[in-house]
Amino acid sequence: MESNRGKRILIMGGQKAVSIGLFPILQWYHDEFRKMLTRPSAKLHGHRVQLQATAHINDAIVDGMRLA
Question: Whole-angstrom Cα distance, residue 62 to residue 68?
Fold first, then answer.
């Protein structure tokens, strides 16, 4: 990912949701992810995921399950 100044960025650590909010394109991706998970027909398939999900991802998944 590159910033609007053309510099590469990498978001790590425990405050990903805050950091993502600083970059409009990343916020848009997250909003779209959440929107897709909350559709009535949504299905989430995970295959050999090796990274630990973070709170903002887990929250989106739980919201989708509640609305199912």
Answer: 10
The model's pTM = 0.67
- Tell me the per-residue pLDDT of 1-17, one tens digit each, with 9 for 90 and over: 555 677 788 888 778 88
Please list the alpha-helical segments (H only) found in the chain. 16-20, 24-37, 55-67
Task: Please return the burial class of 61, using the count of CB atoms within 10 Å of its CB with bins 0-12, 13-18 and 19+.
Answer: middle
* Cβ neighbour number for residue 60 with a 10 Å cutoff: 20
CA atoms within 13 A on the CB side of 56: 18
Tokens of 44: 């989430």
